[in-house]
Amino acid sequence: MTTTPQRPDVISLRRMFAQFPTGVVALAATVEGQDHVFVASSFTVGVSQEPPLVMLAVQRTSSTWPKLRNASTIGVSILSKEHRLICRQLSHRAPERRLRDVPFTRQGTAILVDEAAGYFVCRIHDEHPAGDHTIAVLEVLDLKPADGTDPLVFHRSGFATVGVA
């Protein structure tokens, strides 16, 4: 007799995912005269070096991604420990409040949050459906590291920073 393993329930799965520390990024751009931003902790670097690719998983229910994906370039700001307080604002339900009083720089249509731990300027390379998410693969067009700035990390459903061991 063969038994099929039970799939984990959503609560258990989310708790397990929370055990894995992830970086926090703000993806932002101007599309048709409107600024759009959302925060993600599903960003992955090192997908490919040639061509240079990064990726993220976006919930299919996102109301921001369908707009943001139409930008010619998208800014990806690796949020730093200094952004802990504004991170919630960047994720606000009201899109018009997200960038209010947040210092940022424009590079073409890309928006880069000031004092980030690093920046990428990207364009959409490809998208793939993945369950209740879309995997967005982004081509890196430009980058700027910010040496000496500690990145913000999402771990166990809260914000933390990385310490050197």
Structural class: mainly beta
Main sheet specs? 7 strands, antiparallel
Annotation field: number of helices? 3
Give the neighbour order of strands across the main sheet.
3-2-6-9-10-5-4
Radius of gyration over C-alpha positions, nearest whole angstrom: 17 Å
- The CATH architecture of the domain at 23-46 and 62-144 is Roll
CATH superfamily of the domain at 23-46 and 62-144: Electron Transport, Fmn-binding Protein, Chain A
What is the CATH fold-level name of the domain at 23-46 and 62-144? Pnp Oxidase, Chain A
The gross shape turns out to be globular
Query: What share of the residues lie within helices?
Result: 10-25%
C-alpha end-to-end distance = 49 Å
**What is the overall pLDDT average?**
91
Query: SSE order, as H and E?
Result: HEEEEEHEHEEEEEE
CATH class of the domain at 23-46 and 62-144: Mainly Beta
| Low-confidence residue ranges | none
Q: Care to count the β-strands? A: 12
User: What percentage of the residues does DSSP assign to strands (E)?
Assistant: over 45%
Protein name: Flavin reductase (DIM6/NTAB) family NADH-FMN oxidoreductase RutF
Domain Flavin reductase like: 17-161
Pfam families: Flavin_Reduct
Keywords: Oxidoreductase
Q: How would you describe what is shown here?
A:
The protein has 165 residues and is mostly beta strands. The protein has a domain at 23-46 and 62-144: Electron Transport, Fmn-binding Protein, Chain A (Pnp Oxidase, Chain A, Roll). The protein contains three helices and twelve strands, in the order αβββββαβαββββββ. The protein has helices spanning 10-18, 65-68, 84-90; strands at residues 22-23, 25-31, 34-40, 44-49, 52-59, 74-78, 104-107, 110-113, 118-130, 133-145, 152-155, 158-161. Strands 3-2-6-9-10-5-4 form a seven-stranded antiparallel β-sheet. It has a three-stranded antiparallel β-sheet with strand order 1-11-12, with no helix packed on it.
